[in-house]
Amino acid sequence: MIPVPRDVKVWLATGYTDMRKGFPGLALMVQETLKRDPHTGHLFCFRGRQGGPDQGDLA
């Protein structure tokens, strides 16, 4: 388990995400869709279409 500091927000994306985008594409999605800076230190979690393991972007 990864310890998360108290001041870190965890953002969970609903629906499925095209995981072929990689981290640069996911960071761009955070900027365009959530209107957030992916480099703030918050945790953004995404889920693929097949329900496989989650992929996160921790800046």
Short overview:
With 59 residues, the protein is α+β, with helices and mostly antiparallel strands. The chain is built from one helix and three strands.
Q: What portion of the residues fall into strands of 2 or more residues?
A: 15-25%
Taking all Cα atoms into account, the compactness measure Rg is: 11 Å
Structural category? alpha+beta
Q: Note the total helix count.
A: 1
Which residues sit in consecutive blocks of at least 5 with pLDDT less than 50? Answer: none
SSE string: EHEE
Instruction: Specify the biggest β-sheet.
Output: 3 strands, mixed
Backbone shape? globular
What fraction, in percent, of the residue positions are helical? Answer: 10-25%
Q: Kindly, what is the distance between the CA atoms of the first and last residues, rounded to a whole number of angstroms?
A: 18 Å
Average pLDDT metric: 82
The spatial strand order of the largest sheet comes to 1-2-3
Tell me the total number of β-strands.
3
What does this structure look like?
This protein is α+β, with helices and mostly antiparallel strands and 59 residues long. It has a 3-stranded mixed β-sheet, with helices on one face.
